[in-house]
Amino acid sequence: MSDDPFFVVKREVEQSLVQVGSLYQAWFQQLTSNTVSETDLKRQGADIRDILRNIVADLDELDETIQIVQSNPARFKLDRSHIDERKQFVQESRKKVEEMKSSVNNPSAARMGGQQGMRNNLMGSNKTRTDKYGRTEDEYKVSNQKFVEREQQQQQALMQDQDAQMSDVAVTVGNLREVARVMGSELDDQTRLLGEVETQVDSTQGRLEDGMKRMKDFIKANSDSRQQWCIAILVVILVLIIVLVLSF
């Protein structure tokens, strides 16, 4: 399942929703408290819209994969419940995107809902007002609060997943460290054995050199003795020849 393209894109969507959720929460708080200029709010809103567009594109891709799987679920080994879960994720994600897009595209309505909601809490007002989308101020406040809570829960879930992944990485690193230690020990043993072999080779080579030197000395000594005998024999033969010649 981890190789399923749906889950790859799903993780990207979840991470993007957490990112844009944090930006949206900061933007909404600054909007309702009037702590930043309109220029900064517009810039932040533009950043949020860019991320939302990317999320919508990813959700469109997920819809396409769902349609492909739905056309032949047996081929992909997925039952109806799995397909429904995927549809639900896309629908809920689109709802979050639309809620944020609605507020960012209409900051005046968002400010009105947020500020009026705070005034109602302080003054105990029961007046019901609606924005251009037909939402009452209380509904708008509750919707934003639910959105923030969902984003916080999702962020906590992602952090827990990351902690679990980090734990797995730590275990893997520990295993690699143990393997490296064993390999280092083996290399030390091999180095020691090679040193012993080298010492034995040097000793054997020294003995061979001594033997070769002795052999050369022996051959040289024997060679000089044969020359002397040859000269002596030749001298004797020469003397005999001279004697024979003189006798005639």
UniProtKB/TrEMBL annotation:
Comp. bias intervals (Basic and acidic residues): 92-101, 128-137
A biological-process GO annotation: Golgi vesicle transport
InterPro entries: SNARE, Syntaxin-6/10/61_N, T_SNARE_dom
Compartment(s): Golgi apparatus, trans-Golgi network membrane
Membrane-spanning segments: 229-247
Coiled coil found in the keyword field: yes
A Pfam short name: SNARE
Example of a GO MF term: SNARE binding
Membrane disposition: Single-pass type IV membrane protein
Highest taxon above the source species: Eukaryota
All residue ranges annotated as the T-SNARE coiled-coil homology domain in the record: 156-218
Biased composition (Polar residues): 117-127
Region entry Disordered, spans: 92-137
Major subcellular location class: Golgi
GO CC field: endomembrane system; Golgi apparatus; SNARE complex
PROSITE patterns: T_SNARE
Keywords: Coiled coil, Golgi apparatus, Membrane, Protein transport, Transmembrane, Transmembrane helix, Transport
Family listed: Belongs to the syntaxin family.
Designated name of the protein: t-SNARE affecting a late Golgi compartment protein 1
Source organism: Batrachochytrium dendrobatidis (strain JAM81 / FGSC 10211) (Frog chytrid fungus)
Lineage, uppermost ranks: Eukaryota, Fungi, Fungi incertae sedis, Chytridiomycota, Chytridiomycota incertae sedis
